[in-house]
Write a structure and sequence with these properties.
By secondary structure, the chain is of the alpha+beta class. The protein has 2 domains: about 130 residues, no CATH class; about 40 residues. Helix content is about 25%, strand content about 35%.
């Protein structure tokens, strides 16, 4: 049995009615996907597939939490996931993604694997900046970060580029070549 079999949907078996699917996306799912973005989590996915005259409408609702590194202290943190997404699948000559919500699926293929779409919907629901609340961050890492930031900031003040005395080191090297 293939590792993605439970995420495959046979479009030919979907009648005119709506069909509901439910998936538990736990550690096994993230191990199968084997992608570095999100590697741990516990997310429930509810999917309804409705056949229309021209297409199949996939309505996804994913909710739960994934573990990702905090941008501030690098410790693992829980990121809540709650997203609703739609995917429309139409038959055509060859596979193409017409937009974020529309896929053209080859007429000779009847089975669609939704595993990667589930993963994408999770990843796209994660904010760009993800940090713990300040009191939950690793205190040792925060103190190192603040120490680095203070040193870095004082170096910037020493090299004030608006000052008349500041000379870009690249120009200094060129002057040495010129004076030879």
């Amino acid at each position: 049995m293939g590792k993605f079999n439970k995420y495959k949907i046979d479009l030919e078996n979907i009648s005119d009615e709506t069909v509901a699917y439910s998936y538990e996306l736990s550690q096994d799912f993230f191990d199968i996907i084997d992608h570095e973005g999100v590697t741990k989590g516990d997310v429930k996915a509810e999917l309804t597939v409705k056949r229309t005259n021209e297409a199949f409408e996939f309505d996804f609702h994913l909710f739960g939490a994934v573990q990702i590194p905090c941008d501030r202290c690098l410790d693992e943190m829980d990121q809540e996931i709650d997203t609703i997404n739609r995917l429309v699948v139409k038959y055509g000559v060859e596979y193409s993604e017409e937009s974020d919500e529309l896929i053209i699926f080859p007429e000779d293929r009847r089975i669609i694997n939704i595993a990667w779409y589930l993963y994408e919907f999770i990843v796209l629901n994660i904010p760009i900046k993800h940090v713990h609340e300040i009191d939950k961050c690793n205190k040792e890492m925060i103190s190192k970060y603040l120490e680095y930031q203070a040193v870095s900031h004082s170096d910037d003040e020493d090299l004030d580029k608006d000052s008349d005395e500041y000379i870009d080191p690249r120009w200094d090297a060129l002057r040495k070549l010129k004076n030879k």
